[in-house]
Amino acid sequence: MAFLLSRLGFEVGRELGHALAGLGLEVRHFGLLRLLADRKGHSQRALGAMLRITPNRMVALIDDLESRGLIERRPHPADRRAYAVTLTGAGSALLDQALQAALDLEVRTCRPLEAEEREQLLGLLRKLAEAKDALNNEALAGIHPGMPASDED
Amino acid sequence: MAFLLSRLGFEVGRELGHALAGLGLEVRHFGLLRLLADRKGHSQRALGAMLRITPNRMVALIDDLESRGLIERRPHPADRRAYAVTLTGAGSALLDQALQAALDLEVRTCRPLEAEEREQLLGLLRKLAEAKDALNNEALAGIHPGMPASDED
DNA sequence: TATTGTTATACTCTATAACTATA
DNA sequence: TATAGTTATAGAGTATAACAATA
Questions:
Q1: Domain limits at A120?
Q2: How confident is the model over B132-145, as a mean pLDDT?
């Protein structure tokens, strides 16, 4: 079952990549845009910690999206070393399209299942994910906050 | 749900990698050893086509496992250009250990679920995988056999 | 002294295109 | 001519360690 889960997850991830490619986005771009829609004005390091992306890679990722006018590096109100990374109007609009593409994929992925089966599957996957989160939060509780610290990932 | 599936699948795959690391194996090694246990004496290209690994990468992969005495390049009975790649006794023994490690991971992964729920989940994942296979086989039916041909993957 | 963003360097992984020996 | 295995080269992606500005 673990094998099946891994394989399906890998394929769905790849399909999401294909779906986003039409918008000129990759999965990591999507992840950052999605995060910026919820949590506003965070520093690059804070965002990287949430996404498990190291500081040097965040530079390239943010350079990329900023050069396309989708996000902005604004001065951070409390720390002149840092930027407050912010979604622009164009970024928000493209994110909406990306979310729509993800929803289409969702529908396509679920098509082989009956409505009732989808609910079952969703519930079971949630249960697994929550159990895993509980484990991770416990394990991460003792770690210095703000740092990726993904040595023993 | 697609997102949840992708995330869980990714994490399980990573955990399998950690479980195999103790045996000095990576997931790709495991995949090849597993394949060799079932289908004996195939050429490198045939194996690569099944695993979606290009010929040049197969060389390095097989070099690696052969240098550790886990597999052998024997002369191919019907084609002097090719090798009949074969699992050795040591390879078979290590594969058994790897399968045991994978089974342990399976048990750990399923722990948050009741026995009945596991059956449900397994059934639903199988249904999704089979639907996907049906699609792929149809799409692949027109492609020249024996070639990876992963242009539009 | 520690931290934010950045850059430079090296290293790994991979794809592509050659090459040889056979078919 | 096409195919099996191999090798060489170049390119992408990444980690690591430095750096200047600020805390």
A1: 115-141
A2: 54
